[in-house]
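Much of the work behind modern protein science is quiet bookkeeping, done one molecule at a time. Below is the pair of lines this work produces for a single protein:

***
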Amino acid sequence: MTTHAPQAAHTVTLPGTLDEAVAALAAMPAAVPVAGGTDLMAAVNSGLLRPAALVGLGRISEIRGWRYLDGHALLGAGLTHARMGRPDFAALIPALAAAARAAGPPQIRNAGTLGGNIVTAAPTGDALPVLAALEATVIIAGPEGSRREIPVSHLLAGVDLLNPGELVGFVRVPLLHAPQTFIKATGRTGPGRATASVALVLDPARRGVRCAVGAVAPMPLRPLDAERWVASLIDWDGDRGHLDPQVTTAFGEYVAAACIPDPLPAQDGSEPVPLPPAAIHLRRTVAALARRALGRALA
């Protein structure tokens, strides 16, 4: 798996089913599951991780595809970014496809998986704000064939964690059949880690707007007040795209201020320390992304 750390793992198990993988983890508590390995092997090669054993998930075909289920898409955790970026998937969940295409260079997109993005939970994970905006859930496989389902946001926030021997098997995503978009800013031209990202989806059935901001905090942030405010100004029964440009601009600023707020006054009543220039620049970036995301979704 790597030439830099050949002694990192003494045992490699390659199960053929999800339940076999769970059983392997139960039998080897020190084992680490690995799918694409884009984050895991980087940690191994840098010396940050030395797993005693690995449980490879690459042969588990049941988690490498997707299917329809009761108005939802049931996505296997082993879906690669490259697969999610294809046109047939983009027609199903456009924002997730856009995030997958922006995940990095081809070698990363071909190896990295949806489940790995979730479990690694890196703040810059491109799929995470999309899943938060879509209010997706994860189906977790446990010992003896058990399954439980929790919101992705609970897993990312640490409200509910994976227990020993559990694996993320599937992701359930509502099919809204409505405009949605994902935009990110990077520190350089071309594919790269996000300095900020915004996912935005419209939910006409509920007359709602859902927005999630990634990379600016340890987990995606939902500016709920900004969502409700702009949703109240959209003509859901008429021309949704006919929204005053000043509203989209104000929405961007509303989102940015919610995610990167001004410092609170000091307890002694003195003036608060102003935001540093880097935070001001990041706030402007988030405002621009949110404004553009709303404009594209309404277009």
Notes: Residues 1-9 have pLDDT under 50 and may be disordered. The chain has three domains: 9-54, 64-172, 178-296. DSSP finds twelve helices and eleven strands in the chain.
